[in-house]
Request: fold
Amino acid sequence: MNDFQATADRVEIEALRGEFADAVMMRDRPRLASLFTPDGALRMPDIPAEQVGREEIRAGGERLQKQWDFFVQTTHPGTILLDGDTATGRAYIQELVRTLDGYQGLNYAIYHDRYQRTAEGWKFAERVYEVRYLDTSPLAGTAPHAAQGAGTDRADATATPAPAASFADPASAEQLDRVAAALRANGFAAEILDDAAAARVRVKDLIPEGAGVFTGASETLRLSGIDEDINTGDRYDAIRPRVLDIDRATGADEIRRLVASPDFVVNSVAAVTETGSLVLASGSGSQFPANAGGAAHVVWIVGAQKVVPDLSTALRRVEEHALPLENARAQAVYGMPSAVNRLLIVNAEPRPGRCTVLLLREAIGY
Reply:
């Protein structure tokens, strides 16, 4: 290989690495996947995650990026060792991240790379991500969000505070036991499960086929797959898809009746106290009638990070933790901010067997 070809190869590989960082930052999953050979692999054992092939890399990038509140990656040049139509190398990166479930951190890492010359130019045959330094201290900064239309004060749109780190930490086994005992004393059925996968199975056990089921707007349900289980297929009489098909201008009364008194409502909560109370927050309050008493049965799935000592701390968690995360999601999805316009506090259940709380040992959702 002559010196000119070697220089050209190094420039193209460096451009490939820069293109990767840009695709990640711009959340361009198809472009990210196209930077790999058809059977290329992206391995991240510290996350952990591993994707092999362009479709897995695209889908895996989508799953990860949906969890971000913000993410910044800076790539620094590293070594490149050429060997004909293949090469190896390393790139050094710095990252800042905060996810929608409250995780945040600064890390320095290395990509260990293998490259392959193809008809389309140099591509990644493999990238292996190795973290060398990690700091999960709360980040002081925020991600600016776009102003919400003419006349909107941009300072208001960018004023989302960082969530309190303590509200993202999973409860201990002892705390979960105390919560479960308090809930049972207050008339709720309470079960402690390992994770969202176990809750997904348990929900199918609790709800008979053909039942009318309304699912609340919940990241816990979405991330666990429970929302998809209920609202797709023909196992249940799913109410949310029916509601989405109704014209809101002419069918408001029909929507109100459908969501107010289903056979089952499945939802999550913003907080659960060690004294056995549950707190739900909403912008519209449309989910509250079913949860409060309208539904014949209620199933709440609650991540371990939602456990708090008492009601005053629960209300702080809503304002300081859940609202900023939901606000970021609403800004990204709907182009408008969220708000806590209504609160529902459920202290006890007088109808035995109506309410089941599935407490998870893992953190999930807000």
About this structure: DSSP finds twelve helices and 17 strands in the chain.
